[in-house]
Amino acid sequence: MDRQPLREYDLSITRRQLFGRSALGVGTAAMAQLLGSPLLGSDVVSQADGLHHTAKAKRVIYLFMSGGPSHHDTWDYKPKMMDMFGQDLPEHIRDGQRITGMTSGQKTLPVCPSKYKFTKYDNNDQGVWVSELLPYTAQVANELCVVHSTFTEAINHDPAITYIQTGAQIPGRPSLGAWLSYGLGSMNENLPHYVVMHAKSQFAEQSLFNRLWGSGFLPSDHQGILMRSEGDPVLYLSNPTGVTRTDRRAQLDALAAINAEQHRQFGDPEVLARIRQHEMAYRMQASVPELMDLSTEPESTFQLYGEDAKQPGTFAACCLNARRLAERGVRNIQIFHRGWDAHGNLPQEHESQCKDVDQGCAALIKDLRQRGMLDDTLVIWGGEFGRTAYCQGGLTKENYGRDHHPRCFSVWMAGGGIKPGITYGRTDDYGYNIVDEHGEKLTPQPTKETWTPGTMHIHDLNATILHLLGIDHRKLTYRFQGRDFRLTDVHGHVIQDICV
Amino acid sequence: MIRRRLQSTIVASLFALILAPCVFAQSKVNFSRQILPILSNKCFVCHGPDAEADDNLRLDSYESATQDLGGYHAIHPDEPAESQILIRIHDADDPMPPLDAEKQLTEEERKLLDQWVREGGSYAKHWAFVPPQKSELPDANQANTNPVDAFVAARLAEQGLQFAAPADKHTLARRAALVLTGLPPDTDELQQFLDDHRDDAYARFVERLLANPGFGEHQARYWLDAVRYGDTHGLHLDNRRGIYPYRDWVVRAMNQNLPLDEFITWQLAGDLLPNPTVPQLVATGYVRMNPTTSEGGVIPAEFQAKNNFDRVENLGTVLLGVTLNCCRCHTHKYDPITQTEFYNLFAFFNSTAESALDGNKYDYGPVIKAPTDQAAWDAWQLLTDELTALLENADSQVTTLDSLREADLTAWRTADATERLALLADASGSFKQLEGHSSAIDLQHRFKAAEEQFTTTLVAKELQQPRETYLLNRGEYDQPKGEALEPAVPSVMGSLPKDAPRNRLGLARWLTSPDHPLVSRVIMNQIWIRTFGLGLVRTPEDFGLQGEQPTHPELLDWLAVELQESGWDHKHMLRMLVNSRTFQQSSAWRSDVEDADNRLWARGPRFRLDAEVLRDIGLWASQLLDPHMGGEGVKPYQPPGMWLAMAHPASNTKQYVRDEGTRLYRRSLYVYWKRTSPHPMMTLFDAPNRESSCVRRSRTNTSLQSLGLLNETQRVEMARKFAERLVKTADNDSQRIDQMFRLLACRAANDREQAACVQLLELMRKRYSGSADDAKSLLTIGDAGTDDSLNATEVAAWTQVCATVLASDIALMLY
């Protein structure tokens, strides 16, 4: 019989995947999964050129600041708030915004200007104001597009972070990273498609959830793989004690022989897929330690990233790992840094938080630039919402806290098809509402339903990320429960103004 | 180029597969099965149930499709050939769907639409919304009594095919045992079956499996996925939740074969039954299973809405097989369910008594006390039986006793069982003369002692004064619209029984009524999936217009009706499936059948076993498996720091403190389920996180699974205890290998398998004889003690062989 079992396997897998969703609205992404197989020729190894259109970015590194960094104390400079220190936030500014249960009981909502000094750094545009908390990142301001007008509807962490990561506030949907894995496949089969790292923080006060990098209803091999700083970098990577690599080789040979016998008996092409996965695991056991071995990095690397980068699990170390992963063809990398939820003692907490991430962020940008990788690597920095213009708890010039704020927050993006050195969107003098280019209030408030120029709803952010990676967010769908789901629900608008 | 060619090949073969069963040459087009899917998929996005009727054509009913649109009709009622549809779907300049529509019609679809319109364009209800009926069993050539086989054989015959040869007896034993109990058959059980040469040996074997307590443990697991059972609240702090008695109740219900209509009713509304029993109350944990939060600052009204969205959606997935998510914000685009109807369903759940926020509490009330494990449930059951007997006896005496006054009699008549026991046991009361008095005192003590050991479990309770429910504009909790809504059911699925109360109990009555179109089909499909690995409907979560058609529609309907007629007898249905010839076929792929997805059921089931089963098989083979049933979730080995790296510092599940002793070796059903971070060996093999419903797990093959299989602590521990077992029970290599295969595959190894194992064994012997330290390192992995009387080199070498075979398809697959 003239059978080609491996090819047959791929065909059958695809058929099954197709049947699993729509019969006719076949997700091209499913094809990408099929065609991503190196067995079918190297010209189709991955969707590096883009799934729906030419990709500007081949990979993405998402630096997620969990808890909601204060835009007031980092990227959104509001000098006029100084004059209003301690006075009640004007009602027309609050404009009906619902307030979390943590401050809704406060008698007043006193205006709370940032205590930090801002400096204007040159960029390609009007310049960008950066707080003294981010001295390193400020140095690469001319590479960044700082978006001041990101917004969401959620006002609490769990719904908000679930929303920005999965496109829905209620759990159950695939994460951004899982969608990318589904849409783009992998450029290196010896490493996971989608890598997630958790960076250390002194104030790790929010929870993270598997769902934030989970696959939802997508096949579960699209879930993010945790790259850990403790124990095995990838779960169960090391052989048990007393088992060497040679021993494992012998085991895998026996395993392949036994499985081949199963294939002979049952003709089930999936057997061969499993044999291949065992082999890939064996290669991963070599490629991951090689990846994690920083001894080959020159001293200049550590000058760039800081000494912290030698400590596993620090944000700087995660950034360095991210660059090494990117170099090796991992296209989908996310670092979570917790501790940004500064309801009280914001100065103490944010100083520590910014110190954790600042040098690593800047180093990553510079490093990618000097390696010629920034142009096709999209880097994103941001959290799930912003923080209030008013103070939560006691307010002094030196100390204050801020509650959650959904109506505007700052996110920066760089590289991979993003216009460098610009800002996008404006907020009012209180950093409370998004305003138009003339500083006029937007009436009504912008919503996810229709895009308003100058604004970036979190669905717009996700649509833009997919766009830069060559994916049309309206077309990357998966049929589940009779509906073609997508990351951006029925919303999302690509912000062309920030794209090259 | 390669890409394009491949694509077209695939698409072509796809059509062949899809269309082959649907196109009945020359016969009249079948609206429900052939046309409605096209309309739904290609047209309803604009012309469906949610289209604004005034300014947009609707194609979801005959009435609207035949409307006079100013001199023309989409479908002309009198002159079908004049219908606009016929023109527009072929119009090159101004086609429908429009050129920029994402989904275009195929040539085949145009032909079908043409035929349909020319035949009059008549409409019919979507098949799944019409109550199932039993059709005549097809007259197949094979003399079959099993209805499953009759329907399957008829389709095979249409294709000129026959059943595959039956699987070997030993393979069949393994298959049936794994499908029914989630474990291979015990050695004795297997031998008994293999030695039994009576005609009905297999059926007898199946009966023994159905009676095995492992049956309930295995079957319960699927239901727990569906209802998203977890041991934590799921959101934000993701704190501990006291609800495991619910899980144990599900296991009991499965083992006792509680009729599935009652199984459903108790879960939805056990608290609303007259004098509800403890199990009936525990069952209502279903209503409380939604993830909850108590994040600082959240707005209770928002979560009152979200909690109920979740419940309605779960009901939709688990019992109705339709997605209701869309209707939260707008009338369904495809299925005829309106937004108002979504909130009518919502109203059934909106008056439960718990607060919207969980307070991060383990005993997030209302709660009751329930037995802590199966032994306690059994003991409690005995007490209850004793009580029933005692009270029956007392009841017969009461009327004959002259000394009782009318008031006493009234008190007795109006008392429930517990109160009657108290009356009977009261040493100063009027009933002390009854025969059962001293037994009552004793029983009361024993009840008290048992109940003191009880634990907390979350239950549903109805508020005295129901909450009002409104349609929420765009699903926003703070945008109620219109009048308050009554609890009601979607009209396309029938109506509440006339005398049914408008509460959860009425809802349950409706769901389990004989004319409900969906529930019996949906449940039957779930049972089929457990048996065959794939559904008759391949989209078990969606029987709506966008879901897939059943592979064998008449079979599904026949079984659904049979399920009801049998008194919702779960075991009866499983018995019918497992005893079918269809199930017993060899699972080898057939060169004479082009059917990769096994839609014809022309071969037996074959699939990768679930995470839990993989672990249980290893524990069982190594004799580590602890038979203890039920109780609080157990925490086996887990790499350190996994919870801590993610958890909120205030969470009471931030530290994973692993168990010791026998709790490490319980069946995987009992592994503690932290919803934001379930056990990695579970999620690695596709277990869901139980934050939302899962009625179909994916089955992936990944390299990370390979690492887990060969390196995870418990896997290595199993391998070395398995090795000890083999070394102890047989003398030579060949016998040991055979023994290993008998346990894992229910058969001896063949020559090639023997050779592969022997080769590895000899390499490892050589290797470990030169390195005692490595052998020792390997043999001290995991807590289980080592048998020092055995030769360490030998056990280490065998450990490697066992680990390898346990990771191979011999152990991983159902076949």
Describe the structure.
The complex is a heterodimer of chains A (about 500) and B (about 800). In chain A, about 30% of the residues lie in helices and about 15% in strands. Chain A has twelve helices and 17 strands. In chain A, a hairpin with a 2-residue loop joins strand 16 and strand 17. Residues about 1-45 of chain A have low confidence and may be disordered. By secondary structure, chain A is of the alpha/beta class. Chain B is mainly α and about 800 residues long. Among the domains of chain B are: about 25-125, no CATH class; about 125-165 and about 520-595, no CATH class; about 375-450, no CATH class; about 710-815, no CATH class. Chain B contains 33 helices and six strands. Chain B has helices at about 1-20, 30-45, 60-65, 85-90, 105-120, 145-160, 170-180, 185-195, 200-210, 215-225, 245-255, 260-270, 280-285, 300-320, 340-350, 375-400, 405-415, 415-425, 435-450, 505-510, 520-530, 555-565, 570-580, 580-585, 610-620, 680-685, 705-710, 715-730, 735-745, 750-770, 770-780, 790-805, 810, and strands at about 365-370, 455-460, 470, 480-485, 605-610, 815. In chain B, helix 21 crosses helix 22 (about 555-565). The radius of gyration of chain B is 30 Å and the shape is globular. Residues about 1-25 of chain B have low confidence and may be disordered.
Q: What is the strand and helix layout of this fold?
A:
The complex is a heterodimer of chains A (500) and B (815).
Chain A: H1 5-20, H2 28-35, E1 59-65, H3 91-94, E2 118-121, E3 128-131, H4 135-139, E4 144-151, H5 157-166, H6 176-184, E5 194-199, E6 225-226, H7 245-266, H8 270-292, H9 299-305, H10 315-327, E7 332-337, H11 346-370, E8 377-382, E9 386-391, E10 402-405, E11 409-414, E12 422-424, E13 426-427, E14 434-435, E15 456-457, H12 458-468, E16 478-480, E17 483-485
Parallel strand pairs in A: 1-7, 1-8, 4-12, 4-15, 5-6, 5-7
Antiparallel strand pairs in A: 2-3, 4-11, 8-11, 9-10, 13-14, 16-17
Helix pairs in contact in A: 1-2, 7-8, 10-11
Chain B: H1 2-19, H2 31-47, H3 62-65, H4 84-88, H5 107-118, H6 147-158, H7 169-181, H8 187-195, H9 201-211, H10 213-226, H11 244-255, H12 260-269, H13 278-283, H14 300-320, H15 339-349, E1 367-370, H16 374-398, H17 406-414, H18 417-425, H19 437-452, E2 455-458, E3 469-472, E4 480-485, H20 504-511, H21 519-532, H22 553-565, H23 570-578, H24 581-584, E5 607-608, H25 611-621, H26 680-683, H27 703-711, H28 713-729, H29 733-745, H30 751-769, H31 772-779, H32 792-806, H33 809-812, E6 813-814
Helix pairs in contact in B: 2-5, 6-22, 7-9, 10-11, 12-20, 14-15, 16-18, 16-19, 18-19, 21-22, 21-23, 25-28, 28-29, 28-32, 30-32, 31-32
